[in-house]
Amino acid sequence: MNDIFLRACQGRKTDYTPVWLMRQAGRYMPEYQKIRAKVDFLTLCKTPELATEVTLQPVDILNVDAAILFSDILVPLEPMGMQLEFTEQKGPVFHNPVRTSADVHALRAIDSQADVPYVLQAIRLLKQSLKVPLIGFSGAPFTLATYMIEGGSSKNFLHTKRMMYQSPELFQSLMKLVSGVVTDYLLAQIRSGVDTVQIFDSWVGALSPHDFERFALPYVQEIIRALRASERQVPIIYFAFNSSGMMEQVRKAGADVYGLDWRIEIAKAVDLLDRNHVVQGNLDPCALFGTRETIYAEARRILEGARYAPNHIFNLGHGILPETPVDNAKTMVEAVHEISLKAL
Ligand code: CP3
């Protein structure tokens, strides 16, 4: 197996900088669209053979150093009692948003083995054929709670924050329930064979640092502590999107690797992490709409910026956009490999 990515996660030296792309399996790829034309998104997530096939597509096509399980952060919420639908126009929708104490009490914890067997089966299938490490993942409790409370994507997170400020105890009880689900879900993925896990906290950037510390961070810490106590240890990546104004708080999560978006100079983030944490990122996804020259220049700039970190995993600062030319994504991977191999 090409274990460069895993070694980098552990902070060990590598011959070159590993690279993968968030949302690397997806609509920008004609091979993905061909499969999606036949089945809806949720069916794709729930059919292990198909999920395996789309997970493998970018590994072969882009030559990335890691695969990420094809699924969605919202998948484990369905068996909790959330009525999930992925719509073409509005993205994910929950038809029964959680707003009251009765709504929270109607939810249940999940048993991943029984409730999401297809996710674990996809992991087992992938481990049979993959030549690179497999990343498992979950949403972080705050990000998942925003979808549950808002009933879908949101701009201002008004319902979420109203619950936080008006009924903090109710909000905390929901967070506790979701944290239990995330812990069970990640432990089940680890037992099924994933090599690393990434916790996506896509919407914590909406919180003040103070509220992040009260309402979101303790739950991430609790999950990471539980993973550290498990029988099989894997590196843990925490990606708090849009959080560069609160790195001081984010770094308390206890992760091995911190994901970075593009709103912070990577060298500055490395310093804020005392140069003792591996970093992942931080190319603006729109940089993939540039030319071969600008893509090489950006790759070089970021690789140089990360040089004082124990190691660096090159990635985008958020998911790849559906309009991205596949050839430019390939160019980016090639640039990272080529430049880092020479420089390191
Ligand atoms: O990275 C990968 O290749 C693995 C698969 C993956 C998906 N979603 C597939 C997906 C992962 C890791 C996710 C995580 C996810 N999902 C996040 C966290 C990362 C982030 O982007 O901040 C969030 C917030 C979601 C929720 C979600 N899922 C939204 C808002 C949407 C609709 C918007 C969109 O891009 O379509 C989805 C749908 C989704 N998840 C798609 C894919 C490939 C598109 C579905 C389709 O084929 O139509």
Identify the notable features of this structure and list them briefly.
seven-stranded parallel β-sheet, 9 strands, binds coproporphyrinogen III, alpha/beta, globular
Polypeptide structure, described:
The protein is an alpha/beta fold. It has one domain: Alpha-Beta Barrel (TIM Barrel). It is 47% helix and 12% strand. The protein is built from 15 helices and 9 strands. The strands form 2 sheets. It has a 7-stranded parallel β-sheet with strand order 1-4-5-6-7-8-9. Helix 14 links the parallel strand 8 and strand 9. Helix 9 packs across helix 10, helix 10 runs parallel beside helix 11 and helix 14 packs across helix 15. The protein is globular, with a radius of gyration of 19 Å. It binds coproporphyrinogen III (CP3). Coproporphyrinogen III (CP3) binds next to strand 3.
Ions, cofactors and other ligands present here are: coproporphyrinogen III
The tally of helices reads: 15
Helix fraction, binned, reads: 40-55%
| Total number of distinct structural domains | 1
Please state the CA-atom Rg, rounded to the nearest Å: 19 Å
CATH architecture annotation: Alpha-Beta Barrel
The low-confidence parts are none
The computed structural class is alpha/beta
CATH topology call = TIM Barrel
| Distance between the first and last residues' Cα | 21 Å
Beta-strand residue percentage: 5-15%
Helix and strand succession? HHHHEEEHHHEHHHEHEHEHEHEH
Cross-sheet strand order for the largest sheet: 1-4-5-6-7-8-9
The gross shape turns out to be globular
The CATH C-level class name: Alpha Beta
Q: What does the largest sheet look like?
A: 7 strands, parallel
